[in-house]
């Protein structure tokens, strides 16, 4: 079993094949600090090769998902001296590190479910875009608030465009519009919207049971195929997909899946929450 990293700004809890990751800086409404991003990267390092962890559930402590970047950290950046000569600006280096995290979180082999409550502003909205399934409460507040602070939504912009399309992303980024969970569902930012905690819990259970019917290796292969669409020519994507298909068919999951179907029983990997 994977050893999970020790964290100060995250709460980590494993239940069978599920890893619950909770952003835990409630005093800042779970704003994304440099230390928090570093800890999230440590979680990725620990789990991305571990197929015994099938699902990651991401949420925020105390009923708030994430209020975006840590404004105190922004203020400290203003006070840092500009680099000399051709040296890279440390503000740009730190900002780019967040982009590297988003790339890796987006491509985790595990199926990632985001549970979004309270607020998802700026980087928190960007974080909402790099998951496989998103569930939000209807009264959650969303906004791409960066331009109102005089900065661009730099690292999250490509992921927001991938999720929402260019036209909607432009509207939200260039107006700083605030909207609720129902509108987030209408524009495709989240997949499910729930009126209350009971509905949220029931929806999460249904989603986890759906994931539990899927073979973990097959899900990881599927994510790899889907993400390669952005990187490779179509013929290369299809070649890669064929290799994944052959590997799964010849592997234990393919054999077990076919046998379970023919024998009219559940496959060995099926997990169900009550």
Protein architecture, described:
- The chain is of the alpha/beta class and 274 residues long.
- It has two domains: 10-212, 2-enoyl-CoA Hydratase, Chain A, domain 1 (Alpha-Beta Complex); 216-263, Lyase 2-enoyl-coa Hydratase, Chain  A, domain 2 (Orthogonal Bundle).
- It contains eleven helices and nine strands.
- The strands form two sheets. Strands 1-2-3-4-6-9 form a six-stranded mixed beta sheet, with helices on both faces.
- Helix 1 (34-47) packs parallel to helix 3.
- The protein starts with 9 loop residues before the first strand and ends in an 11-residue tail after the last helix.
Offer a quick outline of the entry:
The protein has helices at residues 34-47, 71-79, 90-106, 123-128, 157-164, 166-175, 181-186, 197-212, 216-228, 234-250, 252-263, and strands at 10-15, 18-23, 55-60, 111-116, 119-121, 133-137, 141-143, 178-180, 192-194. The protein has 274 residues and is an alpha/beta fold.
